[in-house]
Write a structure and sequence with these properties.
Layout lengths: L1 H21 L11 H7 L2 H28 L1 H26 L7 H25 L8 H14 L2 H6 L16 H25 L17 H28 L3
Amino acid sequence: RFELFYMDFIVGTLIAAIIGAFTAGSLGSEGRTFLTDLAQADLTSIFYALLGGIVWNLGTFLLVAAMAVAGMSVGFPIGGGLAWVLGICVNFVLELSADKPQSKTGMLFTGVAFIAAAIYLSMLSYRRLAKEQKKPSAKGILIALAAGVTIAFFYGLVVKSLDPAFVGGGSGNLTPFTGVFFFAVGAFISTPIFNLVVMRYPVQDERISMLEYFKGSAYTHFIGIVGGIIWMAGMVISFMSVGAAGPA
């Protein structure tokens, strides 16, 4: 069940964020190391990074739920696609409102067109590979839409916690690696809350208990953790590039 898989996934994201903080976030000659940055971080910056993690986690939790209810061919293109495209537009508007547009508009929205094509092809692929075709329910589509809208706003929250130069970290602000670490912590601490609600009021099938988690095979748990590590590795690299490329 996705509720149980998701706990392994989130553990993987935290592991990758910690590895990123103590490797790329602590090596090299520029900027503060992770532990030094952690010691000077102010509560406002930490709050925004944590909030970004909680918002992303809620959206991603809904996305996984949508895929469980409506299938990959519906949940992923609607939820993931909306999150991706709307998130780019939201961050582009934030850049303009800050009077510091960093993104090259033509290249950016050419990329959006490629994303839309990739999402469409993914939808076709999942539909052909599915062992059984799930008729998309209104509930599954609504959950996917809610997931996409929610995820779209997390990135800007985490960016608010970072130093505008994105390198050394200003006084109280965070370097990208520390920001990603608190983002991962926000996702980690909010997962049990979301899980308890969904386990009590499931979107599919019957209620399940936490005891079911321990009945999963080691391989199944391993796959979930690796999925989280892969995803968060991409997030770490994304925030490494945000100073030069812009949030959008």
